[in-house]
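F.,

This is the one I mentioned.
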């Protein structure tokens, strides 16, 4: 086989074939080992309660075939003679592939850890989703910045000068993007301070709705009429926000007026009627009921109670039941509700106007 002994680019054809075979064998072996390890660990994870093996599966899933090929080319090239410059280039590419693949493994592990933590916390803390989204973004950003710097360092770039240049450039970018950065830092404030979380019902000035999404620049609410309300995070934190999602109980004040012709003995019964109507309802706590004032056309009674459930529909159902019971009691006692009215007294004089 004289053809196998022919020299091509400084190596015999047989040497090239051996190198090619070695490369293919290595890439296939690495891919097979990775797939086998994933299957074995995934099968074992079904019978365990720990998350460690699930994390290993997530990391192995982040392995990219293209990087396995680069590693295989590097090891396959060791069996042939190549110029030092070429060998150095291959080694550099292999190192870059290893660095990027390491970044992918770290990113997959970070994503898995954040997912597990979020699922655990979401049951007790609705803000966990927002918090972990922001933390995950910042952690991944820091990770890939480190990967980039390590890669540039292996390429011979002066990282010190680069970092200095990035610092000066960062100041210029910060001045140009100060509004965007204000919203970004506002989003971090929302994440850390948690003035509201997903699904909280907010009233912001004259706008109201449920929190749908908290992003890096904007927060989005879904209004009662169906449209989406979008606020920049900086403007939202600068506003006065009423958060009904943090309401544990609802204080209710209502007034009832009766006509001035109501006898005194019936007036003394009204306070007890209001109290019994409130205490007859579940999820309520009576506070007080009083004959409050003499109004322009009615004698006014004021009652105060607490609904022990923040849900608006529950409050309305209770208030409706109270109103119906009061109406029933007033009807039984013959007490008349007041309504806006005016009495005009006409005095007739004599013919001479005296």
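My design for it:
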């Amino acid at each position: 086989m004289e053809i196998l002994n022919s020299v091509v680019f400084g190596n015999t054809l047989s040497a090239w074939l051996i190198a090619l075979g070695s490369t293919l064998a290595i890439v296939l072996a690495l891919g097979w080992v990775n797939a086998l390890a994933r299957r074995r660990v995934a099968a074992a994870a079904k019978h365990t309660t720990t998350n460690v093996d699930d994390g290993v599966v997530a990391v192995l899933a982040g392995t990219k075939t293209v990087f396995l090929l680069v590693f295989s080319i590097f090891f396959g090239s060791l069996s042939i003679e190549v110029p030092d410059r070429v060998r150095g280039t291959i080694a550099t590419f292999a190192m870059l592939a290893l660095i990027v693949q390491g970044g992918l493994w770290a990113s997959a592990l970070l994503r898995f850890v954040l997912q597990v933590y979020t699922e655990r916390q979401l049951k007790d803390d609705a803000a966990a989703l927002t918090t972990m989204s922001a933390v995950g973004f910042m952690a991944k950003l820091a990770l890939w910045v480190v990967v980039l710097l390590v890669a540039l360092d292996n390429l011979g770039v002066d990282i010190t000068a680069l970092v200095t240049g990035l610092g000066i450039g960062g100041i210029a970018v910060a001045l140009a993007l100060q509004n965007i950065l204000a919203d970004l830092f506002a989003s971090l404030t929302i994440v850390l301070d948690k003035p509201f979380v997903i699904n909280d019902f907010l009233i912001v000035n004259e706008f109201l709705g449920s929190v749908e999404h908290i992003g890096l620049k904007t927060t989005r609410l879904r209004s009662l009429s169906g449209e989406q309300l979008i606020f920049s995070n900086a403007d939202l934190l600068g506003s006065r926000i009423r958060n009904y999602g943090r309401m544990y109980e609802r204080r209710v004040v209502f007034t009832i007026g009766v006509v001035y012709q109501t006898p005194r003995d019936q007036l003394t019964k009204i306070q007890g009627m209001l109290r019994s109507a409130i205490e007859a309802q579940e999820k309520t706590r009576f506070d007080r009921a009083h004959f409050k004032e003499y109004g322009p056309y009615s004698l006014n009674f004021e009652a105060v109670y607490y609904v022990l459930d923040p849900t608006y529909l529950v409050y309305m159902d209770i208030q409706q039941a109270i109103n119906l019971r009061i109406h029933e009691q007033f009807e039984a006692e013959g007490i008349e509700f007041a309504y806006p009215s005016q009495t005009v007294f006409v005095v007739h004089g004599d013919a001479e106007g005296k």
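Residues 157-245 form a domain with the SH3 type barrels. fold (CATH 2.30.30.60).

Talk soon.
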